[in-house]
Amino acid sequence: MLAVSFKIFVVLAVVFSVLLPLALLLERRHHAVLRERIGSSREGIDPDVSVWEFLRPLGSALWLLVAPAPGAEGPHRLLRELAPSLAFVSALLGLAMIPFGVGPYLFGESRVSMIVADLDWGILGVSVALGFSQLADVLASWANGSSPARLAALQGSLRMLAGAVALLLSSLGLILCAGSLGLSEIVSGQDSDFRVFGLLEVVSGAGTLSPWLAWLRLPAWGVFLQPLGFVLVLRCAWLATSRPGPVLHQGARPEAEALRSGAFLTAAYLERIVWASAIVALFLGGGGIPYIDQATIIAFVAQAYGEGFATGFTMLVHGGAFFAKVAALVAVLTFAHGRFEAPAYERGMNEVGRFLLPLALLNSLLTALVLVWWDGMQA
User: Which of 372, 369, 374 has its CA nearest to residue 201?
Assistant: First the structure.
């Protein structure tokens, strides 16, 4: 319990003190540049910006979790009060199933993993958590009671289902390569590298390659093993995080709806962080360092400071690398969100049905055929 509590504290501290304010700051600066606002942001100085200003939506979300604000009466009042909390909590549950290191790390006979909930089906859990985060928008729109809002809720539910299916199918090729649904196993398998032309040895029957060909290596990250899957998942992330917000109830108190808007705003940024964390774990090696695996770092540091200190130092390095990758990917998603207009419902669904799903299925089929052929060659 103490170890789990410490992991939860570390994740929440980094997310709410670094990643969430960073996402808000990047979007605010980007919008200021797009709108050509003249002011302190043009000079690189923001005297009117403070950490408390960026964490204000977080305070609204926490207030709704503790004491939901009264809204308009009606048969769907429970859904209106439940939706912001569902959006907020589901995003946090998604973060709990993503490893923010490589691991496992050995301290004597103890094995430590940098993940709050290490599940054998972690990628399915993250997909469900992201789906529930979008389901909160559907509930909030449905509880509005008006016909346009309910139509938006039905469209949102279809978008949610299509996005979840597209995410799983786009990741299926990488899952086949890793042979596991657990994110810890997928991340650990990427803590190595491979020869780019190593396949020529098997195909041509040559004993070894020339030195300059054998020297050319790449990290065994999902982005190099499954480049098409990486592009598809990145597109799914942009479509999911750029969807319109829920249609809130217009008859409730203004201050109550303001709190709900703040909660949904915080949940939207948290969802963007979950998407970035999942992509980093699946395709960017998690907390791994290119060309330097975990054993190499521990062996190098242990020469001077001992194995225990070296293992702890490696954990810090991997954790810092993971959150740095997540911050960079959040910046990319924020830039895309502000630069490109989100597609309408019909165009977005057409893109999922005509391009994302067929390409994901084709990528999975080709990956399965290559793996079967490779197993036959090894036999």
Answer: 374
Residue 314: C-alpha distances to residues 104, 106, 187, 299, 318 (Å): 11, 11, 15, 10, 6
Q: Alpha helix (H) ranges present in the chain?
A: 2-14, 20-34, 51-54, 56-66, 77-96, 122-142, 147-178, 183-189, 199-204, 211-215, 222-225, 227-241, 254-283, 294-305, 307-339, 345-351, 357-378
Q: CA-to-CA distance for 271 and 301, rounded, in angstroms?
A: 37
200 near 206, Cβ under 8 Å? yes
Q: Write the pLDDT tens digit of every residue in 225-241.
A: 889 989 988 888 888 77
Q: Does 35 have pLDDT greater than 60? A: no
Q: How far apart are CA 142 and CA 344, in angstroms?
A: 19
Distance between CA atoms of 374 and 37, rounded to whole angstroms? 57
pLDDT in tens, 61-99: 555 555 554 444 555 666 667 777 777 788 888 888 898
Cα separations in angstroms, 15 against 57, 66, 274, 276, 330 = 14, 20, 10, 12, 12
Residues making up the chain, counted from first to last:
379
Average pLDDT, the chain: 76
Which sign, positive or negative, has the C-alpha torsion 94, 90, 172, 196?
negative
Judge whether 127 and 161 are in contact, CB under 8 Å: no
Q: pTM to 2 decimals?
A: 0.83
Calpha distance 278→160 (Å, rounded)? 17
Question: 10 Å Cβ neighbour count for 53?
Answer: 14
Q: Are 283 and 221 in contact (CB under 8 A)?
A: yes
81 — phi, psi (to 5°)?
-80, -25
- Locate the domains of the chain by residue range: 57-378
Q: What φ, ψ does residue 194 adopt, rounded to 5°?
A: -145, 155
Cβ-count burial of 28 within 10 angstroms (0-12 exposed, 13-18 middle, 19+ buried)?
Answer: middle
